[in-house]
């Protein structure tokens, strides 16, 4: 299991819309994420900055599985209207590098 931290940024004025869209994600996207090995995905927001923590079997495999999945393609089209930089799942993103962990906290 991998624990991946991500940082994304909203376009100015899109905070409320982003939260509204995430209140309930489409069932097809939920199923696609779970089928791709995602166990949990949490997002925190500070102004326009979004901080994600994803617990997933294999992050790169998940991105590959979702890249052309119809539910994710539709979701990313919606996100492209809200995010300052859209993610087309074509890169080799590995998340944010971890720089510190409280010793003995049993991280991933």
Automatic annotation (TrEMBL):
<dbReference type="InterPro" id="IPR008000">
    <property type="entry name" value="Rham/fucose_mutarotase"/>
</dbReference>
<dbReference type="Pfam" id="PF05336">
    <property type="entry name" value="rhaM"/>
</dbReference>
<dbReference type="InterPro" id="IPR011008">
    <property type="entry name" value="Dimeric_a/b-barrel"/>
</dbReference>
<dbReference type="GO" id="GO:0019301">
    <property type="term" value="P:rhamnose catabolic process"/>
</dbReference>
<dbReference type="GO" id="GO:0016857">
    <property type="term" value="F:racemase and epimerase activity, acting on carbohydrates and derivatives"/>
</dbReference>
<protein>
    <submittedName>
        <fullName>L-rhamnose mutarotase</fullName>
    </submittedName>
</protein>
